[in-house]
Amino acid sequence: MACISDYVKYEKEVLAPKLGPDFLTEIIKLESKGDYGDRYDELIKPFYKEFVLRISSDKWPDSIMQMVKHLNYDVYNYMNGPSEFGCGGTLKNWDIKRRLKEISVPTLVIGSKYNTMDPDETQWMSEEVQNGHYLFCPNGSHMCHWDDSDTYFSGLTQFIKTL
Fold first, then answer.
1. Backbone phi, then psi, for 137, in 5-degree steps?
2. Percent of the chain with pLDDT over 70
């Protein structure tokens, strides 16, 4: 992401309402108490299933399960904080939108319909860098390399062949 506040705004205003009218209200209530326990985990699961990896969680590939098992929460929380709908870590003021024009190497920016990041913003980012290319995965989520792999890998291959 180029700007954390844009990212969080998209999650709150576009994605959270898709999970029901009370979803974000309850998430915010728990976060305000610093309660990231079982209820928070229960509430957040549909978010992950819809916007992080859109394949049945009982069929997640072993590599994904290993990543989840070995995720370094100390680093994640240091950078982002424990919230999935806010940022309290070192990235809380992250905004490099004006600096994207400095990137001159060929850059592939990948967006997907069900990602946690706004696909319009990912497309915009590809236009801001000097030699940007855009790949849109219409059936993909945050992990579109898994749930829209045909689009992802054919687009990635095509990009690599242009280099």
1. -105, 100
2. 99
Q: Is residue 84 part of a domain?
A: no
Q: What is the pTM of this model?
A: 0.90
Same domain, 12 and 59: yes
| 71 shares a domain with 109 | no
Q: What value does the mean pLDDT take over residues 33-38?
A: 95
Q: What DSSP element (H or E) covers 133?
A: strand 132-137
The domain in which residue 26 lies consists of: 4-79
Q: CA 24 to CA 12: how far, in whole Å?
A: 7
Element housing 110 (H / E): strand 107-112
Q: What is the pLDDT of residues 133-151, one digit of tens each?
A: 999 999 999 999 999 999 9
Q: Which two tokens stand for residue 157?
A: 């291959």
